[in-house]
C-alpha cells in the first residue's frame, strides 16, 4: 500500500516509516525539519530509513520537505500522490515549549491537522491514524486513565491542541465517514529519541558529571513506553479500520471514529527512572531538586485493555531493559566512551 507518514524525521515517525518499508509498503515521508531541536539528528534518522532499504527497494521511500500548515502545498500533495492510508505523527511537540511559543502549536497542530483531514476527505483515504497524547488527561486523580474519562481540563496549550485534534477527527468521521483512529501516547522513550525529553537530558548530564534538575522534588509518576512497543501498536492499529465489519464499536453514534491509549500500563516513580539510568550508565546522578513546572502533570497511567482487545497486543518492555538500550545507543551516537 501507499502511505503518507508525517513527522517522518521525528522520533516515532522515522521508525514507523522504516518498519512500513520493511514490510513492503511505499512510504512518502513529510517533515518541515524545523529547528525545535538539532536538525542533524532529524537528518540522521532520515538517512537511517534509506540505509535500511535494499538497493532494489530504494524507491519505496521518498522524503518531501513540506510544512503541514502549507494549505496549497498539502492539497497538491494529496492530489498528486493518491495515498491509501495516512499516519499523521507530525506536530509541534513539547508541553513546556507551548508556554514559550504558543503560535507554533496553532500552525502545526491545529492548521496541520486540518490540512490532513481535508486531504483524507477529498481523496478517499482508507484510514487516518493520528497522534494524540496522554497530556489530554491533565491532572485527573483517577487512575489508570481510560479512553472513557472526561478530558475537558487540559493544563497546557499542547494538551489543548491534542484534544482539539480528537474533536476535529470526530467531526470528519461523522460528516464524511472517514475512518480515524487517535492514539494517546504515554511518554515514549528509546534510541533515536528527542533531546528535549528526560531520558536524553538526564543521560547527557549524568555521563558528563553534571547536575540534573528533578522537578516536584522527584514526586512524579510516568507511564514510560518503549519506542518499539509504540511502533508495533501503530502498525497493528492502522490495519484495523473503524466502521468495518467486526470492529469493536466505541462510539454508538460515530462508528468511524476510534481512540486508544498506548502506554506501558506500569507507572514508574521519577526517582526509579533516574536510578535505571544510573545503573545503565554506571554513574550516580547529581540531583538538583526543584518545584513543579508550569503545565506539567503529576502522574500518567494508561489503561490499555481496549487496545489489547483490538489488536491482541500491549506494550510491555521493562523500563530497565529499554533504558539500557537507550543509554547504549546514546553513547554510540555521541561517540562516548
What would you report as the Rg, rounded to the nearest angstrom?
19 Å
What is the straight-line distance between the termini? 43 Å
What is the tally of helical segments?
A: 11
Spatial arrangement of strands, main beta sheet = 3-2-1-4-5-6-11
What is the 3D shape?
A: globular
Helix/strand-derived category reads alpha/beta
Q: Name the poorly predicted regions.
A: none
The major beta sheet can be summarized as: 7 strands, parallel
The overall pLDDT, averaged over residues, is 95
Q: How much of the polypeptide forms β-strand, as a percent range?
A: 15-25%
What do you see in this structure?
- α1 (11-22) links the parallel β1 (2-6) and β2 (26-31).
- This protein has a seven-stranded parallel β-sheet with strand order 3-2-1-4-5-6-11, with helices on both faces.
- With 337 residues, the chain is an alpha/beta fold.
- The model has no long low-confidence stretch (mean pLDDT 95).
- The chain contains eleven helices and 13 strands.
Any chance you could write out the topology, listing elements then pairs?
Elements: E1 2-6, H1 11-22, E2 26-31, H2 39-51, E3 61-65, H3 71-81, E4 85-88, H4 97-100, H5 102-122, E5 127-133, H6 157-176, E6 180-185, E7 188-189, H7 198-207, E8 211-214, E9 221-222, E10 225-226, H8 227-238, E11 257-262, E12 268-269, H9 270-281, E13 286-289, H10 305-311, H11 319-333
Parallel strand pairs: 1-2, 1-4, 2-3, 4-5, 5-6, 6-11, 7-10, 8-13
Antiparallel strand pairs: 9-12
Helix pairs in contact: 1-2, 1-8, 3-5, 5-6, 7-9, 7-11, 9-11
Amino acid at each position: 500500500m501507499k502511505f503518507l507518514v508525517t513527522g517522518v524525521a521525528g522520533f516515532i515517525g522515522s521508525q514507523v516509516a522504516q518498519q512500513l518499508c520493511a514490510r513492503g509498503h511505499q512510504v512518502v515521508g513529510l517533515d518541515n525539519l524545523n529547528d525545535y531541536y538539532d536538525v542533524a539528528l532529524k537528518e540522521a534518522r532520515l538517512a537511517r530509513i534509506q540505509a535500511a532499504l535494499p538497493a532494489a527497494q530504494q524507491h519505496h521511500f521518498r522524503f518531501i520537505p513540506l510544512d503541514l500548515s502549507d494549505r496549497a502545498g498539502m492539497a497538491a500533495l494529496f492530489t498528486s500522490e493518491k495515498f491509501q492510508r495516512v499516519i499523521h505523527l507530525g506536530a509541534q511537540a513539547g508541553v513546556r515549549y507551548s508556554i514559550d511559543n504558543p503560535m507554533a502549536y496553532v500552525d502545526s497542530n491545529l492548521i496541520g491537522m486540518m490540512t490532513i483531514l481535508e486531504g483524507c476527505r477529498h481523496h478517499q483515504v482508507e484510514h487516518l491514524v493520528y497522534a494524540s497524547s496522554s497530556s489530554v488527561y491533565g491532572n485527573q486523580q483517577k487512575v489508570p486513565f481510560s479512553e472513557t474519562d472526561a478530558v475537558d481540563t487540559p493544563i497546557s496549550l499542547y494538551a489543548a491542541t491534542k484534544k482539539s485534534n480528537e474533536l476535529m477527527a470526530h467531526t470528519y468521521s461523522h460528516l464524511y465517514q472517514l475512518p480515524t483512529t487517535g492514539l494517546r501516547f504515554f511518554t515514549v522513550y528509546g534510541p533515536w529519541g528527542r533531546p528535549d525529553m528526560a531520558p536524553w537530558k538526564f543521560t547527557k548530564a549524568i555521563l558528563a558529571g553534571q547536575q540534573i534538575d528533578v522537578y516536584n522534588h522527584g514526586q512524579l509518576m510516568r507511564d514510560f513506553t518503549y519506542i518499539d512497543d509504540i511502533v508495533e501498536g501503530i502498525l497493528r492499529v492502522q490495519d484495523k479500520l473503524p466502521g468495518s465489519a467486526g470492529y469493536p464499536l466505541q462510539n454508538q453514534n460515530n462508528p468511524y471514529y476510534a481512540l486508544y491509549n498506548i502506554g506501558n500500563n506500569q507507572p514508574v516513580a521519577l526517582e526509579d527512572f533516574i536510578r535505571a539510568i544510573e545503573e545503565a550508565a554506571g554513574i550516580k546522578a547529581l540531583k538538583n531538586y526543584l518545584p513543579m513546572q508550569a503545565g506539567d502533570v503529576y502522574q500518567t497511567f494508561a489503561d490499555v485493555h481496549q487496545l489489547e482487545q483490538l489488536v491482541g497486543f500491549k506494550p510491555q518492555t521493562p523500563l530497565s531493559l529499554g533504558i539500557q538500550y537507550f543509554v547504549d545507543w546514546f553513547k554510540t551516537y555521541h561517540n562516548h566512551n
